[in-house]
Amino acid sequence: MKTPEQMKSAKFYLLNLHFWIIMFDYSFGILTIPFFLFPVVGGHPLGVLRYLGVSTLFQTIFVCIAFNNMLVSIVAIFESRFNTLCTFQWMKYWRRIRVKWLVVYYLVTMIPFIMFSFLVPDQAIASHYIKEKLPCLPEYIYQADNLIFSINFSNHIIVLMLIGIIDGSKGIFFVICLTWNIIQQLKAGTMSQKTYRMQRKFFFALVIQMQVPFITMSVPCIYGFISILALYYNQALTNLGVIACSMHGIISTLVMILIHRPYRELVMKVFKKPVTVLSKEVSKHTFPLKLNSLAPIRN
């Protein structure tokens, strides 16, 4: 199926986003399957990598980087629309550096998560910290290969909040510039109403596609922060949050299929059974019948 014109410029960025969505979904829901012990900033993995002998610290950093790159990919999609549609005078300078900016953006946002690995406390001491904070847990939880990521987690929260603010501010900047510039193009008559309606429909579809999975992820994350700050322990709610995060990939895929008409039509075409209808006129032309013709009868 041919990619529609309004989606060609964003095709690579949508592919990049779903690559990182799959990476995060598989790493979180299959390879690691974290068992968090909130309000303690720690836990232990239950996934495939645990049985392959991969260290818990490496698994944690791997999931964090996949999550970070997924957020950066969302910003990259809105930047692609900004680059394609906006006609600011300074856009020629932006187009010269945008690829380098995007690569640096990925690398810079990954550095804090790598640096966190050097701030992990001594696990021999941290294991006693779990018993102090959560003294009534079953013994098998204490004996598991728990990783306490941080005891004094204030620095981690500050860094994570800064990354979130940077990602959010960049996304808002591109959306505001894109909206304002399109309105100016309409007023100046440099963009037709048909093009405007087509781009607006695609833009709203992108916004919905980003918001639905974002809500799926934000609710468990908000609960995690509240649990840590309020020293509240509820393993059932924590496990429900993990389940919700692990469903992020399938929700993102379903939303993409439902929102974008070309993808929706292609999926429906796969499951639709072909129906062959033979009209009377076609039958007459295909099998002409003469009333005065004779045909031999064979036994």
Automatic annotation (TrEMBL):
The chain crosses the membrane at residues 12-37, 57-78, 99-120, 157-183, 203-233, 239-259. Keywords: Membrane, Transmembrane, Transmembrane helix. It holds the Pfam family 7TM_GPCR_Srh. InterPro entries: 7TM_GPCR_serpentine_rcpt_Srh, Nematode_rcpt-like_serp_H. PANTHER family: SERPENTINE RECEPTOR, SERPENTINE RECEPTOR, CLASS H-RELATED. This is Serpentine Receptor, class H. It comes from Caenorhabditis tropicalis. The lineage of its organism: Eukaryota, Metazoa, Ecdysozoa, Nematoda, Chromadorea.
